[in-house]
Amino acid sequence: MRVVLEALEDPHPLIGLATGRSTALLHERLVSSHRSGQTDLGRATWVMLDEYLDIPQSDPRSFRNQLCRDFDGIFDAGSTRLIGPDLGLHDPSAICADFRSATAGVAPHVQLLGIGRNGHVGFNEPGSKADSRTRVVTLSATTLADLDPAVWPGPDRPTRAVTRGVADIAEARTIVLLAFGTAKAEAVASVLTGPVTTACPASLLRDHPDLRVFVDEAAASLL
Ligand code: GLP
User: Is there a contact between 96 and 85 (Cβ–Cβ < 8 Å)?
Assistant: First the structure.
Protein backbone atom coordinates (compact mmCIF):
# COMPACT_ATOMS: atom_id res chain seq x y z
CA MET A 1 0.00 0.00 0.00
CA ARG A 2 2.95 2.35 0.70
CA VAL A 3 3.78 2.61 -3.01
CA VAL A 4 0.24 3.80 -3.78
CA LEU A 5 0.31 6.25 -0.88
CA GLU A 6 3.56 7.68 -2.26
CA ALA A 7 2.01 8.08 -5.71
CA LEU A 8 -0.97 9.84 -4.14
CA GLU A 9 1.38 12.58 -2.94
CA ASP A 10 1.90 13.70 -6.55
CA PRO A 11 -0.06 16.89 -7.36
CA HIS A 12 -1.96 14.97 -10.07
CA PRO A 13 -1.88 11.30 -9.13
CA LEU A 14 -2.79 8.83 -11.84
CA ILE A 15 -3.56 5.30 -10.62
CA GLY A 16 -4.22 2.31 -12.86
CA LEU A 17 -6.85 0.00 -11.41
CA ALA A 18 -7.52 -3.69 -11.96
CA THR A 19 -10.56 -5.62 -10.86
CA GLY A 20 -10.68 -8.89 -8.93
CA ARG A 21 -10.40 -10.33 -5.46
CA SER A 22 -6.65 -9.68 -5.16
CA THR A 23 -6.78 -5.95 -5.81
CA ALA A 24 -10.13 -5.48 -3.98
CA LEU A 25 -8.29 -6.04 -0.68
CA LEU A 26 -6.00 -3.14 -1.43
CA HIS A 27 -8.92 -0.95 -2.54
CA GLU A 28 -10.56 -1.62 0.80
CA ARG A 29 -7.49 -0.48 2.71
CA LEU A 30 -7.05 2.63 0.58
CA VAL A 31 -10.67 3.67 1.07
CA SER A 32 -10.55 3.11 4.82
CA SER A 33 -7.36 5.18 5.04
CA HIS A 34 -9.13 7.94 3.06
CA ARG A 35 -12.16 7.80 5.36
CA SER A 36 -9.99 8.06 8.46
CA GLY A 37 -8.28 11.14 6.97
CA GLN A 38 -4.87 9.49 6.64
CA THR A 39 -4.78 9.86 2.89
CA ASP A 40 -6.63 11.84 0.23
CA LEU A 41 -7.99 9.86 -2.69
CA GLY A 42 -9.96 12.90 -3.86
CA ARG A 43 -7.24 14.38 -6.10
CA ALA A 44 -6.45 11.22 -8.06
CA THR A 45 -7.49 10.23 -11.55
CA TRP A 46 -8.15 6.52 -11.96
CA VAL A 47 -7.63 4.51 -15.13
CA MET A 48 -9.33 1.18 -15.71
CA LEU A 49 -7.33 -1.69 -17.15
CA ASP A 50 -10.07 -3.70 -18.81
CA GLU A 51 -13.79 -4.37 -19.09
CA TYR A 52 -16.11 -7.15 -20.19
CA LEU A 53 -17.91 -6.60 -23.50
CA ASP A 54 -21.41 -7.63 -24.55
CA ILE A 55 -22.98 -6.67 -21.22
CA PRO A 56 -25.10 -3.56 -20.65
CA GLN A 57 -23.66 -0.47 -19.02
CA SER A 58 -26.03 -0.95 -16.09
CA ASP A 59 -24.85 -4.52 -15.36
CA PRO A 60 -23.61 -4.53 -11.74
CA ARG A 61 -20.98 -7.10 -12.76
CA SER A 62 -19.20 -4.71 -15.12
CA PHE A 63 -15.70 -3.81 -13.93
CA ARG A 64 -16.69 -0.12 -13.90
CA ASN A 65 -19.58 -0.83 -11.53
CA GLN A 66 -17.44 -3.15 -9.37
CA LEU A 67 -14.79 -0.45 -9.01
CA CYS A 68 -17.41 2.16 -8.14
CA ARG A 69 -18.60 -0.09 -5.32
CA ASP A 70 -15.00 -0.61 -4.13
CA PHE A 71 -14.41 3.16 -4.19
CA ASP A 72 -17.82 4.19 -2.91
CA GLY A 73 -17.76 7.90 -2.07
CA ILE A 74 -14.53 8.46 -4.04
CA PHE A 75 -15.84 8.25 -7.61
CA ASP A 76 -18.97 7.06 -9.33
CA ALA A 77 -19.71 5.53 -12.73
CA GLY A 78 -20.05 8.89 -14.50
CA SER A 79 -17.07 10.56 -12.83
CA THR A 80 -14.60 12.32 -15.11
CA ARG A 81 -11.90 11.14 -12.68
CA LEU A 82 -12.51 7.54 -13.78
CA ILE A 83 -11.23 6.77 -17.28
CA GLY A 84 -12.48 3.48 -18.64
CA PRO A 85 -14.28 1.70 -21.45
CA ASP A 86 -17.74 3.18 -22.07
CA LEU A 87 -20.17 0.26 -22.42
CA GLY A 88 -22.85 2.81 -23.34
CA LEU A 89 -21.29 2.96 -26.83
CA HIS A 90 -22.49 -0.67 -27.33
CA ASP A 91 -20.34 -1.50 -30.37
CA PRO A 92 -17.07 -3.23 -29.27
CA SER A 93 -14.92 -1.46 -31.85
CA ALA A 94 -16.40 1.93 -30.86
CA ILE A 95 -15.83 1.14 -27.16
CA CYS A 96 -12.25 0.13 -27.92
CA ALA A 97 -11.49 3.17 -30.12
CA ASP A 98 -12.93 5.53 -27.50
CA PHE A 99 -10.95 3.86 -24.68
CA ARG A 100 -7.79 3.91 -26.78
CA SER A 101 -8.06 7.62 -27.43
CA ALA A 102 -9.03 8.40 -23.81
CA THR A 103 -5.92 6.57 -22.59
CA ALA A 104 -3.45 7.61 -25.32
CA GLY A 105 -0.27 8.66 -23.53
CA VAL A 106 -1.80 7.84 -20.14
CA ALA A 107 0.99 6.31 -18.05
CA PRO A 108 -0.13 5.74 -14.46
CA HIS A 109 2.21 6.50 -11.58
CA VAL A 110 1.21 3.09 -10.27
CA GLN A 111 -0.54 0.28 -12.14
CA LEU A 112 -2.21 -2.26 -9.87
CA LEU A 113 -2.48 -5.76 -11.31
CA GLY A 114 -3.88 -9.13 -10.37
CA ILE A 115 -2.90 -12.20 -12.37
CA GLY A 116 -4.91 -14.97 -13.95
CA ARG A 117 -4.05 -18.65 -13.38
CA ASN A 118 -2.80 -18.68 -16.96
CA GLY A 119 -0.53 -15.67 -16.39
CA HIS A 120 -2.87 -13.12 -17.92
CA VAL A 121 -2.71 -9.48 -16.83
CA GLY A 122 -5.75 -7.36 -17.54
CA PHE A 123 -7.23 -9.53 -20.26
CA ASN A 124 -3.93 -10.02 -22.06
CA GLU A 125 -4.37 -13.73 -22.50
CA PRO A 126 -1.56 -16.17 -23.41
CA GLY A 127 -0.26 -15.26 -26.86
CA SER A 128 -0.43 -11.52 -26.15
CA LYS A 129 2.71 -9.76 -27.28
CA ALA A 130 4.96 -7.29 -25.44
CA ASP A 131 4.00 -4.55 -27.90
CA SER A 132 0.25 -5.17 -27.62
CA ARG A 133 -2.01 -2.16 -27.13
CA THR A 134 -5.62 -1.53 -26.16
CA ARG A 135 -7.80 -3.93 -28.12
CA VAL A 136 -10.79 -6.26 -28.14
CA VAL A 137 -9.89 -9.78 -27.01
CA THR A 138 -11.58 -13.16 -26.70
CA LEU A 139 -11.41 -14.65 -23.22
CA SER A 140 -9.40 -17.87 -22.95
CA ALA A 141 -10.91 -21.18 -21.81
CA THR A 142 -9.10 -20.85 -18.44
CA THR A 143 -10.48 -17.37 -17.86
CA LEU A 144 -13.99 -18.51 -18.78
CA ALA A 145 -13.65 -21.50 -16.43
CA ASP A 146 -12.60 -19.11 -13.64
CA LEU A 147 -15.70 -16.92 -13.96
CA ASP A 148 -17.58 -17.39 -10.70
CA PRO A 149 -20.71 -19.46 -11.51
CA ALA A 150 -22.53 -17.74 -8.66
CA VAL A 151 -21.96 -14.40 -10.38
CA TRP A 152 -22.31 -15.65 -13.97
CA PRO A 153 -24.85 -18.49 -13.74
CA GLY A 154 -26.45 -18.12 -17.14
CA PRO A 155 -25.65 -18.11 -20.85
CA ASP A 156 -25.10 -14.33 -20.75
CA ARG A 157 -21.50 -14.81 -19.57
CA PRO A 158 -19.09 -12.52 -21.40
CA THR A 159 -16.73 -14.11 -23.89
CA ARG A 160 -15.03 -10.92 -25.03
CA ALA A 161 -13.39 -7.98 -23.33
CA VAL A 162 -11.47 -4.82 -24.05
CA THR A 163 -8.08 -4.53 -22.36
CA ARG A 164 -5.11 -2.19 -22.24
CA GLY A 165 -2.20 -4.02 -23.80
CA VAL A 166 1.07 -5.26 -22.31
CA ALA A 167 2.90 -2.23 -23.79
CA ASP A 168 0.34 0.12 -22.18
CA ILE A 169 0.81 -1.57 -18.80
CA ALA A 170 4.60 -1.40 -19.15
CA GLU A 171 4.43 2.40 -19.47
CA ALA A 172 3.39 2.76 -15.81
CA ARG A 173 6.14 4.17 -13.59
CA THR A 174 5.60 1.40 -11.02
CA ILE A 175 3.74 -1.89 -11.46
CA VAL A 176 2.29 -3.62 -8.41
CA LEU A 177 1.33 -7.24 -9.05
CA LEU A 178 -0.74 -8.96 -6.36
CA ALA A 179 -1.27 -12.73 -6.16
CA PHE A 180 -2.76 -14.71 -3.32
CA GLY A 181 -3.62 -18.39 -2.86
CA THR A 182 -2.34 -21.69 -4.24
CA ALA A 183 -4.30 -21.27 -7.47
CA LYS A 184 -1.84 -18.51 -8.42
CA ALA A 185 1.34 -20.38 -7.42
CA GLU A 186 2.14 -21.70 -10.89
CA ALA A 187 1.56 -18.34 -12.54
CA VAL A 188 3.75 -16.58 -9.94
CA ALA A 189 6.55 -19.11 -10.49
CA SER A 190 6.31 -18.63 -14.27
CA VAL A 191 6.43 -14.85 -13.94
CA LEU A 192 9.45 -14.80 -11.66
CA THR A 193 11.46 -17.86 -12.62
CA GLY A 194 10.20 -19.12 -15.98
CA PRO A 195 11.13 -17.93 -19.44
CA VAL A 196 9.95 -14.51 -20.62
CA THR A 197 7.30 -15.67 -23.03
CA THR A 198 3.99 -14.67 -24.56
CA ALA A 199 2.67 -17.98 -23.15
CA CYS A 200 2.71 -16.21 -19.77
CA PRO A 201 1.95 -12.55 -20.57
CA ALA A 202 2.85 -11.32 -17.06
CA SER A 203 6.41 -12.59 -17.61
CA LEU A 204 6.76 -9.93 -20.33
CA LEU A 205 6.76 -7.34 -17.52
CA ARG A 206 9.70 -8.93 -15.70
CA ASP A 207 12.23 -6.46 -17.09
CA HIS A 208 10.13 -3.44 -16.13
CA PRO A 209 12.35 -1.05 -14.15
CA ASP A 210 9.98 -1.01 -11.17
CA LEU A 211 7.90 -4.18 -10.98
CA ARG A 212 6.89 -5.11 -7.42
CA VAL A 213 5.28 -8.47 -6.79
CA PHE A 214 3.36 -9.10 -3.57
CA VAL A 215 2.37 -12.69 -2.77
CA ASP A 216 1.23 -14.68 0.21
CA GLU A 217 2.90 -17.94 1.23
CA ALA A 218 0.51 -20.06 -0.81
CA ALA A 219 1.10 -18.11 -4.01
CA ALA A 220 4.87 -18.26 -3.36
CA SER A 221 4.84 -22.00 -2.69
CA LEU A 222 6.45 -22.97 -6.03
CA LEU A 223 9.28 -20.46 -5.85
C1 GLP B 1 -9.67 -10.95 -14.22
C2 GLP B 1 -9.13 -9.56 -14.51
C3 GLP B 1 -7.70 -9.47 -14.14
C4 GLP B 1 -7.46 -10.02 -12.77
C5 GLP B 1 -7.84 -11.46 -12.73
C6 GLP B 1 -7.56 -12.12 -11.38
O7 GLP B 1 -9.39 -11.84 -15.23
N8 GLP B 1 -9.27 -9.19 -15.87
O9 GLP B 1 -7.28 -8.10 -14.23
O10 GLP B 1 -6.11 -9.90 -12.46
O11 GLP B 1 -9.21 -11.53 -13.00
O12 GLP B 1 -8.62 -11.89 -10.52
P13 GLP B 1 -8.61 -12.33 -9.00
O14 GLP B 1 -7.76 -11.34 -8.30
O15 GLP B 1 -10.06 -12.23 -8.59
O16 GLP B 1 -8.09 -13.70 -8.93
Answer: yes
